[in-house]
Amino acid sequence: MKRTLGALPFLLLGVAADLRATEDSGPAAVEFARDVRPILERHCFGCHGPDRQRSGLRLDVKSEAFKEGAYGPAIVPGKASESPIVMFSSGEDEQMLMPPRGERLSEAEIGTLAAWIDQGASWPEGVDGVTQEDPIDHWSFGPPTRPAPPASVDRSWPRNAIDRFILDRLEGEGLRPSPPADRASWLRRVAFDLTGLPPTPERVADFVADPRPDAHGRVVDELLASPRYGERWAQHWLDVVRYADTHGFEVNTERPNAWPYRDYVIRAFNADTPYDRFVREQIVGDALGRDEATGFLVTASVLLPGQIGKDEPSIRLARQDAIDEIVNNTTLTFLGLSVGCARCHDHKFDPVSQVDYYSMQAFFAGVEYGDRPVRTPQADEARRREAGLRSRLVDIERRLAGLEPTAGSGIERPPVDPRKNADRFGPVAARRVRFTVLGTNRLEPCIDELEVYDVDGRNVALAASGTAIWSSGDTVVAGRHELRFAIDGRYGNSSSWMSDEEGRGWIELEFPGEYSIDRVVWGRDREGEFDDRLAVAYRIEVAPDSGGWRAVADSSDRREYSGGGDPPVSPFPAGLDPEEARVASRLIEERDCLERELADARARQVAFAGVFRAPDSIHRLHRGDPEQPREEVAPAVPHALGTLALPRGSAERERREALAGWIASPENPLTARVMVNRIWQGHFGIGLMGTPSDFGHNGARPSHPELIDWLASEFIRSGWSVKHMHRLIVLSATYRQSSRIDPGARAKDSDARLLWRFPPRRLEAEAIRDAMLAVSGRLNPEMGGPGFDFFRHRGGLQGFPPVERFDAKGRRRMIYAHRVRRERDAVFGAFDCPDAGQSTARRIESTTPIQALNLFNSRFTLDEAGAFADRLRAEAGEDASAQVRRAYQLALGRDPDPDESDDASAVVRRHGLDALGRALFNSNEFLFLP
């Protein structure tokens, strides 16, 4: 850049001479229309004119030319040497030379530009030749209205106001709605839409035979009251906010306490939490008794502290990236507006300036990513349960203490177990404990949790109890291997300490006081699966307040292990008589069960959510660079959308409360419109606005803008009830149409955007998997809590080998799967599951060969087809025709026609019931809404 500016003083001198400057009169005035505009037209408009605006710069319109661009304002009045338009035109740097191709500006032209800018860059009004549209003048930025539903020629078809808007548009295009769908098809459609599960054959039969005029409404009320409804509609929301159970980026470590936010969303939909309250809870739930709801603020990827460089620029950049994710999540989700472009320059399409963007950042300037205690009835119950479990566990440990041999007792103890080892010794007073690894047969020593118990059975080693920790040296993998994880109360190799030297290393603990201890428990990976053995030689030493180190246990009295695989470890200590062995075995089994329950109780008390502190000072950043801060900004909403602004010194919570109130206000032009459009999309596959998270200038044009406004006003009028909107939509004549094709209508509107028929669509991956489990009879209805695994590893650098077969936990609804960011499930990921890398406002719908192959040959399909066959035999007996009839009822919600029955019966007789199940799972009728 210095070379670019080097010639500028000489050029300006030349300009002064050309303009015949004199000491008395000064340089002659440069006129924009006569002298400057022709230069811009000749050299600049090709890249920065009406057709293209590279780097966000437009030079044919005054209001745009002075805006902040990718390199700051192109024109800085009175300062030619600081104006990029002059700097880049006059430079010798080929990378920045403008224009990059074609004829360069002459020295005289550059001088004219420079002189014009130094003279104040006067640009008269009315000389542009074009009128720039006011970006604020956009249909979605105006206040919501409640347009009257139009009258139509056909007064018999509409069932509610929705139908009158739809029919008015159809009649205007010369189209007619389709006849109603049959009752069984409508029921299957609405059951999947509202709960993500097929109706049972018995429910289909009852509904088809129900003569009551309000039969449809009764079905809808029943489905909305089902707990399955919240599970279905929470998935739509989690797609938008990009929920996952890992942190993302290269290491992608586990985020073990993310699931309380997922459960909160399910509960909120089931309870029909008013949407304005739902918005507030997610932004300021810490003030409303909904701590876990603030998980919304931190659902996106984030770099953990150990993954960030220790230099200040790296720390500032990581912080900027983290808060950027919060701003984007908030504006995309609630406002349907993309503001992220304004991080570097004024938005190219929407009225969002850089100042607007950083003013939005200021609302979240005190938000951090982390775990926080949860205050819910479920968490309180978990705390009470934990206390009871601890009491029972202490009693068991005392009873075992009288049976297990102590270290140095002369009884040979079992070999080292990579999962868990207990070293008992006589009670000893200790302030410090050192665990030293003297040697391993390979790799660096690794400890997932080091526990030290006092004579009352309490683990006094926990960091939460005030214990400090040191080590001989650490191998750090952020979020996975860190020293602090050795005493954090979490088990598993994904939360462990690793030494920095092969075969050796030590950990030292210092308690907040002196305790009488009698047991140390440790392991490499208490939750792991091992294909080989890791031999460890070790020594345990203690030191009281007043003395030096004393050895209390070591590996010298443990048996050696040789050979591959896990050794046959006795479930009770060696040296006991048969009766004592039976007692020990029972106690150990009970202890292991209690420890699993205890871990679950602990997990239910915290959530990965917003953690709050004093706000940072937020500055506008030149080109989005944290190393180029400009003026400080205060919390404020985009000027085009409202007037809310707070002083720079506002308290942290006050900022979020103010923002939440503004977003959830009935006067906000976007909030209600965006949400009703998302609800509509959930029922028709595409919203009235085809870009559900972009209601700005770059979004699609709405197919029925008046209907969006009417729905938004009705949403607010109903008390922001989401379930009320469902009832309106699914009971409308529009939704109750058949999906049959009318060739004439298809020629005019091939994708049925005008809704002359119900547009059929394929089920999402979650609904397909859940439906297979429901049909097979093996769907586990258990709700909530930590997720089940699709992969054998929950995160990190080990890769993600899939789980092939699932136990009962793994046959819960797919929303309860532990979601690994940027990794799709091996079977159902092929059905366009988002990977939580970006917000997915609307899923794509692809068709690929791997989808059919997965649904026909995967281990999951084979298992569920087998279970389906067992169910058919139990419910229909051994007659093939009866089995086929029951299979069609369960899988497709109808009886087979005679030809189908004959063909399917032949398949059953020749290939077995399993083959029929696999064929039905692959059928379009199973996979698509009717």
Summarize the structure.
The chain is α+β, with helices and mostly antiparallel strands and 930 residues long.
How would you portray this structure in words?
With 930 residues, this protein is α+β, with helices and mostly antiparallel strands. Among the domains are: 2-118, no CATH class; 289-374 and 606-669, no CATH class; 404-571, no CATH class; 859-927. Helix content is 38%, strand content 10%. Strands 4, 6, 7, 9, 10 and 11 form a six-stranded antiparallel β-sheet that branches. Strands 1-2 form a two-stranded antiparallel sheet. A two-stranded antiparallel sheet has the order 3-12. It is globular and about 105 Å long. The two termini are 64 Å apart. Residues 1-25 and 563-572 have low confidence and may be disordered.
Key terms:
heme; heme binding; DUF1549; FA58C; disordered N terminus; globular; single chain; 30 helices; metal-binding; alpha+beta; 930 residues
Q: What is the mean predicted local confidence, pLDDT?
A: 90
Q: How many alpha or pi helices?
A: 30
Q: Give the C-alpha Rg.
A: 34 Å
Number of DSSP-assigned strands: 14
Spans where pLDDT lies below 50 across 5 or more residues:
1-25, 563-572
What's the main sheet like? 6 strands, antiparallel
Query: What form results from the Cα inertia axes?
Result: globular
N- and C-termini, Cα separation: 64 Å
Q: Assign a percent range to the helix content.
A: 25-40%
The structure class reads: alpha+beta
Strand content: 5-15%
Oligomeric state of the chains in view = single chain
